[in-house]
Amino acid sequence: MPNKSSYNSYVQRDAAVIWHPFTQHQIEPFSIPITRGEGCWLYGENEEKYLDAISSWWVNIHGHGHPYLAQKIYEQALKIEQVIFAGFTHEPAITLSERLLSHLPKHFQKVFFSDNGSTSVEVGVKMALQFFHNQGNTKKRKIIALQDAYHGDTFGAMSLGAPSSFNAPFQDMLFEVEFISQPNDPEACILDMKSKLTSAPDEYAAFIFEPLVQGAGGMLMYEASTLDALIRLAHEHGLLCIADEIMTGFGRTGKWFAMDYLQEKPDIVCLSKGLTGGMMAMGVTCCSNELFDSFLSNDRKKTLFHSHSFTANPLACAAANASLDLMEKEETWINIQRIMLSHQQWADSQRKHPILHNIRQQGTILALDLQVGEATGYMHPLRDIAYQYFIKKGILLRPLGNTLYILAPYCIKNEELTLIYQALEAFAEELRLTY
């Protein structure tokens, strides 16, 4: 078994050369070395283990080290690992596109490949803006988004996120986006949308949203009827609607996609995270033939000029096809329903808890707010205390300020869920005694 000195060696070597994401290294100078994963568990150098309650940033929907996914990537690597996707194609990309479209509403007919969630959002925005530009309509340039939105960390995606600590240093460099009230206040949100659209009806090109659950904004949940009303208003005023399903896609909300709860459907959908089961980096943006056809022209300037070196990477496509194989199994949906029921039962048992407030659920996503004092939000001082507490308990939870959430792989067992619930209750009890 590896010894403590080799563990410390990894920690020190990492600290000497690596800059980690979303990390304040003055406060968190060291990172935990992980050597392998199995199911819901991550294992360290000395076989210490951590229950991955957040699917490693919401991507490992089938768990870690899944042999079927690994086998399919291996098989593909023996055939073709990478090929330029301009002027060439390959079977894994074609099959994946066909299969994705078969699970989306029928008006989605084209798939554009990219490499991550932020880029899939950027592609969606570029599609929407250039759709009008290609028709000679240069007035439609404005975009509407939701308060507390988060759509990624590239400059375009940052522009779509409400002003926050995520984008504050760059705020004066971002393009203008108009934000309407948080949708868990339906009346104010819908009134905001109406006001903007009636004041400048010819200037808005798109409305972008995270359907039903706003993730990084604090797992804020809202009703499908509210989003239906907003999409209806947008369509009545000629806007294209972009659904950011990067987190909510592939069963997270209890259906294939969050849009499946809606009567009104978006025009563009952005997918990533669970798309490949967490095995490879990939994003896709899907749209209708009508939107695609607006780019067809003998004028090359009407082309959608967007790509990256690894567009439709065959290994990532193989991983995504394998993940869809697992998603299409009855067993996966039985597990999703089991997790939903478990969350619901625990949430019901904690409704009057003095510390665990606003317990909310959408599908397999469970979230709550730690109510201690008046402060709230992403920079809440409890964040670091909670993170370290659960790590010491062998549970990976990554709080959003004073908001805790569970977004586990679908293979998680009921006894593993119970470990998380019990740790939440124990932490809340410590807070009660302290505060």
From TrEMBL:
EC number: 2.6.1.62
UniProt pathway annotation: Cofactor biosynthesis; biotin biosynthesis; 7,8-diaminononanoate from 8-amino-7-oxononanoate (SAM route): step 1/1
Subcellular location: Cytoplasm
UniProt cross-references to Pfam families, sorted A to Z: Aminotran_3 (PF00202)
Cofactor requirement: pyridoxal 5'-phosphate
Catalyzed reaction equations: (8S)-8-amino-7-oxononanoate + S-adenosyl-L-methionine = S-adenosyl-4-methylsulfanyl-2-oxobutanoate + (7R,8S)-7,8-diammoniononanoate
Entry's Gene Ontology molecular function annotations: adenosylmethionine-8-amino-7-oxononanoate transaminase activity
Keyword Cytoplasm recorded: yes
Binding-site list for substrate: 57, 150, 273, 307, 398
Site note Participates in the substrate recognition with KAPA and in a stacking interaction with the adenine ring of SAM, residues: 22
Modified residues (N6-(pyridoxal phosphate)lysine): 273
Annotated binding of pyridoxal 5'-phosphate, by residue: 117-118, 244, 308-309
Recorded family membership: Belongs to the class-III pyridoxal-phosphate-dependent aminotransferase family. BioA subfamily.
Protein's UniProt name: Adenosylmethionine-8-amino-7-oxononanoate aminotransferase
